[in-house]
Amino acid sequence: MPSPPPTTTPSSTPCPFCKITSQTPPLPPPYIPSPDSPPSTSTPSDTNTNASAHILLSTPHLLAFLDHAPISRGHVLLVIRRHVEKASAMSVDEGQALGAWLGIVGRGVVRGVMGADDDDDEDEIGDWNIVQNNGARAAQVVPHVHFHIIPRTDDVPEVKARSWTVFGKGQREDLDEDEAKVLLGRIRRSLRREVERVRVEEGEGALKLLLGEGKGGWKL
After folding, report:
1. Distance of alpha carbon 46 from alpha carbon 140, whole angstroms
2. Residue 178 has what DSSP assignment?
3. Which residue, 10, 24, 31, 72, is most buried by CB atoms nearer than 10 A?
């Protein structure tokens, strides 16, 4: 796999997401921590510079972790490792990694939050937002490319007239640490099932594309 372009240096204060990525190296394929392993890092989050990062996915290009000030239960951030401020500066490799993982992480997060079984119909387990902001005028808080995956499960009111809760600062509460531990295990298990689903439904070629160079065998 080609090396990513040089990292863009933040212009002012240290980037909180860069601190997370620097302390969280890529994991071996399938890049998902064991459900019972610890959060992995104690570093900043999207809105709180003294929070723990509850790691869900750690690939050569991407990192996913629970948002420390979630809009809804199971709110996850999917972050580009390299420091770039806007999506327009992403490399082709980074774009391909995002394209491969975004749907898988979305399904895994929602299924994990809902406690869905493998046999459940995806259309019946809930909805979710995928939000990505570019620049302060577009409500970007941390100037480092990241995607919000926000479950809209049955316990979340409809937001027909409250789009500002997604695109602005909105209604957010600190992540409860006890709940975070439960969510962490459930979502990690769900993500591992989603990777296995790729193998079963789309074949080894799709799995190889998802995992990149993916050396050696691995077990779910």
Report:
1. 10
2. H
3. 31
Nearest CA among 210, 187, 171, 193 for reference residue 76: 187
Cα 119 to Cα 151: distance, rounded to the nearest angstrom: 20
Span 84-143, pLDDT tens digits: 999 999 999 999 999 999 999 999 999 999 887 666 555 566 789 999 999 999 999 999
DSSP string for residues in 67-133: -SS-SSTT-EEEEESS--SSGGG--HHHHHHHHHHHHHHHHHHHHHHHT--TTS-GGGS-EEEEE--
Three-state DSSP state, 12: coil
Q: What is the pTM of this model?
A: 0.81
Residue where the block lists tokens 């909180």 = 16
The catalytically annotated residue of 61, 83, 144, 146 is: 146
